[in-house]
Amino acid sequence: MSKLKIAVSKGSLLEPVIRQLSDVGFDTAPLSDPGRRLRLETADAEYVICRATDVPTFVEWGAVDIGFVGSDTLMEGDYDIFELLDLGIGACRFVLAGRADASGGAQAARRENGPRRIATKYPKVAADYLERCGRQAEIIKLYGSMELAPLVGLADEIVDLTATGRTLADNGLVELDEIAQVSCRLIANYVSYKIKSATINELVERLRNND
Fold it and tell me: Span 128-153, mean pLDDT?
């Protein structure tokens, strides 16, 4: 079996991806304690550890053969990659959310006099959603603490990821619409897939059949 170059992301997906690869026979021991190393090599794979938002770029440009990344990252970007498999891990949802009590104040004035505002870390996802719904709104890019925006009048609604909805509820927000389901995907570089198709397809089948 050809040796694969694999991009994995730091953060919440790293441990479940390690388990998945280990379950299908890959040596993932170096990934369990990488220290400060970002490139690790075993007999069957070369691993690159990077930010989740960079995984598709490493794959698209052929620095690695395959990568594991959340579909939220793929939805927000525009990548020329081959999506092979939905692993079903790291499941969450993109939602539109707003204040449970949205009466009065700046929000009410905007409803009457102009377009609403949506705060989000994912402006492309928000814009695509608005287009599908035939709605108009100003999109404000934030990098965190999305729930704060409706509370202080910066925005009327937010587009964000949620798993349980607890953080929304704790901040007095309610889900208004579900935009998309999100989970971890296995992606591949097109050229790598042609050259190493047997190896990559074998991995896909192993992961697909892994309980």
Answer: 93
